[in-house]
């Protein structure tokens, strides 16, 4: 396990740009950055933060005006490029809140999300937003059971709405709903029509969480060749593919990703802000660090968790209870020597701490020696090994709390104190 040992399997270096050596395709190294595809936007994406729209559709969510302002301000300070708000048509208070947030003068652009109708578009533009996101269902099941419109009718209305919003000097995005259960030919013709009408972004939405990364890549890649405007993407997390799908979309040429804090939204939500950034910092560290105040992520997640009355999950990327905890002796030893051995994310980038779990039967003597050092007790390697055996023996019988292990370490050090060392 030592770092100076040669790897058991040698991985040949990739030759040239296409990864082909002597006529055989060579495997790419894991975590290798690959921005060679000019359509990939993994190093230049923008975030449309929808905690105040999609997130309001979360079961527990109720935001009063003050809370909305607090969340919007925190997200703008964090560095997200856009903040999306609930439709002003939803209720009189939703409209008043939308107007109030537009007047704050935040750095992030403010969007609102409405149905693709002239009536909704007019109310949205009147609130003072920077952009309007319009949406309509395009899958057969939604057309049959939701709005009963044909594709020809949808296209006609979409063109009219897009042109009118643009004429008001406001940004506009047109999105289909349930894109991955829609007819691909219908979908591409519709996107092409709104692109020609002057749309700033077209939106691809996996409203039901059915898509896989491969399907996302294929659709977005095809769409990239059909429209010249930006491409926004929206992924639900029903089958836990929301982060992977967002990443695949960016690789295929999408430009914008919808997120919400902790992923809150309809059902079990969408791509979480923290999860997306965890994924993207591995690939594009300079870009992510330069745009977002990562050390504020925990504060924003705690704020939203408190508002919607949930706990941050233990396995949440970055901020979860165990996101940077190391327990097995082999892991702890390597982490103490060089954190990159078992961490691809650096906790200090996010203002959080790593934790070496030393209070179990899986512990190793390096972790115990390090803990003794934290307690101000100096022990030799041989003593640490002996002490670790005692701790493992105890931990085989019952779970040990940190205090229990600290007591064992302290009494061991008292017993093994050199005679000339003064009492502490
Ligand atoms: Zn959604």
Automatic annotation (TrEMBL):
<keyword id="KW-0645">Protease</keyword>
<dbReference type="Pfam" id="PF22617">
    <property type="entry name" value="HCS_D2"/>
</dbReference>
<dbReference type="GO" id="GO:0008233">
    <property type="term" value="F:peptidase activity"/>
</dbReference>
<dbReference type="InterPro" id="IPR048253">
    <property type="entry name" value="DRE_TIM_HCS_fun_bact"/>
</dbReference>
<keyword id="KW-0464">Manganese</keyword>
<dbReference type="GO" id="GO:0006508">
    <property type="term" value="P:proteolysis"/>
</dbReference>
<dbReference type="InterPro" id="IPR050073">
    <property type="entry name" value="2-IPM_HCS-like"/>
</dbReference>
<keyword id="KW-0378">Hydrolase</keyword>
<dbReference type="GO" id="GO:0019878">
    <property type="term" value="P:lysine biosynthetic process via aminoadipic acid"/>
</dbReference>
<keyword id="KW-0457">Lysine biosynthesis</keyword>
<dbReference type="GO" id="GO:0004410">
    <property type="term" value="F:homocitrate synthase activity"/>
</dbReference>
<keyword id="KW-0808">Transferase</keyword>
<keyword id="KW-0028">Amino-acid biosynthesis</keyword>
<keyword id="KW-0460">Magnesium</keyword>
<dbReference type="InterPro" id="IPR011872">
    <property type="entry name" value="Homocitrate_synth"/>
</dbReference>
<dbReference type="InterPro" id="IPR013785">
    <property type="entry name" value="Aldolase_TIM"/>
</dbReference>
<protein>
    <recommendedName>
        <fullName>homocitrate synthase</fullName>
        <ecNumber>2.3.3.14</ecNumber>
    </recommendedName>
</protein>
<comment type="similarity">
    <text>Belongs to the alpha-IPM synthase/homocitrate synthase family. Homocitrate synthase LYS20/LYS21 subfamily.</text>
</comment>
<dbReference type="GO" id="GO:0005739">
    <property type="term" value="C:mitochondrion"/>
</dbReference>
<dbReference type="InterPro" id="IPR054691">
    <property type="entry name" value="LeuA/HCS_post-cat"/>
</dbReference>
<keyword id="KW-0479">Metal-binding</keyword>
<dbReference type="InterPro" id="IPR000891">
    <property type="entry name" value="PYR_CT"/>
</dbReference>
<feature type="region of interest" description="Disordered">
    <location>
        <begin position="13"/>
        <end position="40"/>
    </location>
</feature>
<feature type="compositionally biased region" description="Polar residues">
    <location>
        <begin position="15"/>
        <end position="24"/>
    </location>
</feature>
<comment type="pathway">
    <text>Amino-acid biosynthesis; L-lysine biosynthesis via AAA pathway; L-alpha-aminoadipate from 2-oxoglutarate: step 1/5.</text>
</comment>
<dbReference type="GO" id="GO:0046872">
    <property type="term" value="F:metal ion binding"/>
</dbReference>
<dbReference type="Pfam" id="PF00682">
    <property type="entry name" value="HMGL-like"/>
</dbReference>
<dbReference type="InterPro" id="IPR002034">
    <property type="entry name" value="AIPM/Hcit_synth_CS"/>
</dbReference>
<feature type="domain" description="Pyruvate carboxyltransferase">
    <location>
        <begin position="45"/>
        <end position="298"/>
    </location>
</feature>
